[in-house]
Amino acid sequence: MSPFCTEDDLAIAETVGRFAQDVVAPRAQAIDAEERFAGEHLQALADIGLTGMNLPAEWGGAGVSPVALYLAVEALAGACASTTSMLTAHFLATDTILLGGSADQHRQWLPDAAAGRRLGAFALTEPRAGSNPADMRTKAERTADGGFRLSGVKHFISNAGHADFLTVFALTDPAAGARGISAFVVDRRTPGLTVGAPEPTMGLRGGHVFEVSFDNCLLPPDALLGPEGSGFRTAMKVLDNGRVEIAATCTGIAQAALTDSIAWVKQREVEGEPIARFQGLQWYLADMATDLDAARLLGLRAASLRANHQRFSQEAAIAKLFASEMAGRVTDKALQMHGGYGYARAMRLERLVRDARIMRIYEGSSEIQRNIIARNLLK
Ligand SMILES: CC(C)(COP(=O)(O)OP(=O)(O)OC[C@H]1O[C@@H](n2cnc3c(N)ncnc32)[C@H](O)[C@@H]1OP(=O)(O)O)[C@@H](O)C(=O)NCCC(=O)NCCSC(=O)CCS(=O)O
């Protein structure tokens, strides 16, 4: 499949692919249509090791390579992107604890999260600080007992209303800009923490997003992840991982659209012959496959660098930019090939088109990825 994958990675992908098609795919249309939270899959994801797939075995995780993680996320996304979004948001939360926290914090939070007993959410974005999180307003002030008083509002937070814990980023030194941001792990039952109703969205309708308010929430000293002021850097490292997982989600969605399109042109007939005989449609398929292959290779390259403990921020941004734009192109072409049937809600293609759209926006929009890529080029 790719120079980046080992036999073990491919075996994991096959297992997850079978699980995704047998267990997750059959419920995906209903989850979307009824806007039902994809959490109904949480136990099944945990049973197959997916809830801890980003974590080392030491903390209850699957201990697999980031390449296997990429392939697993892709396989799951081909079945249900809402379920995948719930899972990747959980990964953002547990990655924050893994990368920012101490061994004691790992022990306290990660095994339960890896086992799917506790669901996480990642609270970085604010109503007026999306692309530029350094401009956040949420504050955490020291209290006399060494803990913190947390106040502010976070927005578009996946899982929040269903989560057991959130990793939250807040200013501990408002004068210091990005260097004044700290990361915290917060129990969702903390008094003063309230979550709004799920925000209605165009796609990922089973991957609920929420506004979260912190009204003078009192946090214990051990809620702080890492040294004060290190939160922004932790968030950026977590997002490097997250962007590769979004790229994998995009290749999963696009692969599903391509698979459906191949089946469609073979089955749909015009004047007694399958439309697959039209060269125009064959060229559509060829372009879709080429675009998809390029995106997958970029994603696997980033995952492979991560596996080798090399810096991969640039490659993650390139993979996320290309894959999210590719998913838009491929799902749109697929819909065009299906004609009115692709536009009808009875087919999953309509869902794939809607689910693909957010990929160009969350975890850093395409414009932000271009900024990151250009900034690295001009260093
Ligand atoms: C575009 C940005 C990267 C620009 O950031 P800034 O210009 O504000 O900050 P910098 O000066 O670049 O960096 C400050 C500080 O952080 C360090 N840094 C930066 N990037 C990295 C990295 N990849 N790895 C490690 N460290 C990093 C940098 O070296 C500086 O350190 P020093 O202070 O010098 O020590 C940024 O604004 C950005 O990424 N914006 C997009 C935000 C985003 O993606 N938000 C998505 C939120 S989550 C979501 O969308 C969905 C979640 S869910 O499903 O609920």
From TrEMBL:
Ranges for domain Acyl-CoA oxidase/dehydrogenase middle come to 121-217
Q: Does the keyword Oxidoreductase apply?
A: yes
**GO molecular-function annotation terms?**
acyl-CoA dehydrogenase activity; flavin adenine dinucleotide binding
Under SUPFAM superfamilies, the record lists:
Acyl-CoA dehydrogenase C-terminal domain-like (SSF47203), Acyl-CoA dehydrogenase NM domain-like (SSF56645)
Q: Which residues belong to any copy of the Acyl-CoA dehydrogenase/oxidase C-terminal domain? A: 229-378
EC class (word): hydrolase
Q: Which residues form the Acyl-CoA dehydrogenase/oxidase N-terminal domain?
A: 6-116
The protein's UniProt keywords, in alphabetical order, are: FAD, Flavoprotein, Oxidoreductase
Q: What is its EC number?
A: 3.13.1.4
Q: Which reaction does it catalyse?
A: 3-sulfinopropanoyl-CoA + H2O = propanoyl-CoA + sulfite + H(+)
InterPro entries (alphabetical): Acyl-CoA_Oxase/DH_mid-dom, Acyl-CoA_Oxase/DH_mid-dom_sf, AcylCo_DH-like_C, AcylCo_DH/oxidase_C, AcylCoA_DH/ox_N, AcylCoA_DH/ox_N_sf, AcylCoA_DH/oxidase_NM_dom_sf
Q: Which cofactor does it need?
A: FAD
Is Oxidoreductase given among the entry's keywords?
yes
- Give the family this protein belongs to, as stated in its UniProt record: Belongs to the acyl-CoA dehydrogenase family.
Name of this protein: 3-sulfinopropanoyl-CoA desulfinase
Species whose genome carries this gene: Acidisoma silvae
Q: What is the lineage of its organism?
A: Bacteria, Pseudomonadati, Pseudomonadota, Alphaproteobacteria, Acetobacterales
